[in-house]
């Protein structure tokens, strides 16, 4: 029998698993099931405590925090760790891709009336057979956005922000990024009332430098979003993260329904999110479906 402490046995098992896409997929599914079980246990254990704390103070501060989390440019420091598991990628639809997005959001007060919100996306990627017969792993390209936004909502409760977006060629391997410097405009507009949040985040990136061996970047990103947050700090949402590639005249349209729960662990607000992903439209190499799981640490301002 293989000993769990036998490094050679564990190494052999990993090599066998790495060669078999089915075993890899089963291993990922088992991991996701474990994550879901732990998440549900945490929610059950902590939601009651959060409600009791709000009742004791006569406020619903946790609900307000849950609403702020749905606002991409709220006065709230958030540190999401977003895991994306995707199957069916590549020209033969047999590739697997895992992306961990580290997405810190940091608001900075410029004046009494204006804030600038920094939103950074740092992807770490592991993919197999997305490019047939190959495996890549490492960092992808970083996307950095800055939103200049009024510190209070405008007429009719409208919340908005505009600014620049930058594409940084930080990919550590071929096929993990565009290998181009890019820049363009970005913006967001939304409303929040009675538990509802709805709006649109968008940007347009055009390459301005980088290697000549890869295609130019000329893409529009559209993220319409709709969510409802309950009094128990549970949020049900739907969004797309659609991209139009003007160079190749191709849409990529993943649909992302999700449910999230805001809890407090040792006094620290933490949000857990889980949802499926379906690709309604995409180029030949786009994945067919996936699963998203995210943990977000919150630091109220």
What does this structure look like?
With 301 residues, this protein is α+β, with helices and mostly antiparallel strands. Helices cover 20% and strands 53% of the residues. The chain has helices at 7-19, 21-57, 61-69; strands at residues 76-89, 95-102, 105-109, 114-128, 135-139, 142-150, 159-168, 180-193, 196-210, 218-229, 234-240, 242-245, 250-265, 268-281, 289-300. It has a 15-stranded antiparallel sheet that branches. Strand 1 (76-89) and strand 2 form a beta hairpin. The longest helix is centred in the N-terminal third of the chain and has 37 residues, at 21-57. It is globular, with a radius of gyration of 21 Å. The termini are far apart. 25% of the residues are buried.
Give the SSE map.
Elements: H1 7-19, H2 21-57, H3 61-69, E1 76-89, E2 95-102, E3 105-109, E4 114-128, E5 135-139, E6 142-150, E7 159-168, E8 180-193, E9 196-210, E10 218-229, E11 234-240, E12 242-245, E13 250-265, E14 268-281, E15 289-300
Antiparallel strand pairs: 1-2, 1-15, 2-4, 3-4, 4-5, 4-6, 6-7, 7-8, 8-9, 9-10, 10-11, 10-12, 11-13, 12-13, 13-14, 14-15
Largest sheet: 15 strands, antiparallel
What structural category arises from helix and sheet content? alpha+beta
The percent range for strand residues is over 45%
Q: Would you count the extended β strands for me?
A: 15
* Number of helical regions: 3
Rg over CA atoms: 21 Å
What's the SSE pattern? Answer: HHHEEEEEEEEEEEEEEE
Poorly predicted parts:
1-22, 24-29, 38-51, 54-59
């Amino acid at each position: 029998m293989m000993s769990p402490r036998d490094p050679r046995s564990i190494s052999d098992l990993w090599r066998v698993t790495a060669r078999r896409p089915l075993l890899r997929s089963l291993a990922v599914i088992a991991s996701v099931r474990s994550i879901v079980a732990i998440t549900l246990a945490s929610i059950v254990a902590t939601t009651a405590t959060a409600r009791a704390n709000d009742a004791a103070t006569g406020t619903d501060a946790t609900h307000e925090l849950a609403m702020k989390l749905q606002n991409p440019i709220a006065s709230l420091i958030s540190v999401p760790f977003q895991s994306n598991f995707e199957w069916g990628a590549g020209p033969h639809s047999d590739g697997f891709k895992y992306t961990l997005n580290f997405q810190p959001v940091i608001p900075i007060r410029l004046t009494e009336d204006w804030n600038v919100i920094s939103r950074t996306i740092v992807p770490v990627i592991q993919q197999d057979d997305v490019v047939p017969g190959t495996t890549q792993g490492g960092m992808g390209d970083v996307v950095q956005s800055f939103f200049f936004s009024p510190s209070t909502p405008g007429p009719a409760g409208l919340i908005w922000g505009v600014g620049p977006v930058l594409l940084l060629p930080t990919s550590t391997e071929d096929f993990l990024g565009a290998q181009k410097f890019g820049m363009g405009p970005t913006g967001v507009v939304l409303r929040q009332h009675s538990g509802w949040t709805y709006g649109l985040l968008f940007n347009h990136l055009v390459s301005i430098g980088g290697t000549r061996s890869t295609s130019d970047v000329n893409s529009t990103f559209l993220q319409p979003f709709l969510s409802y947050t309950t009094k128990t700090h549970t949020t049900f949402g739907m969004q797309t993260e659609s991209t139009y590639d003007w160079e190749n005249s191709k849409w990529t349209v993943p649909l992302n329904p999700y449910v999230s729960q805001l809890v407090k662990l040792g006094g620290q607000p933490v949000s857990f999110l889980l949802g499926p992903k379906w690709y309604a439209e995409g180029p030949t190499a786009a994945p067919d479906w996936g699963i998203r799981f995210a943990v977000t640490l919150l630091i109220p301002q």
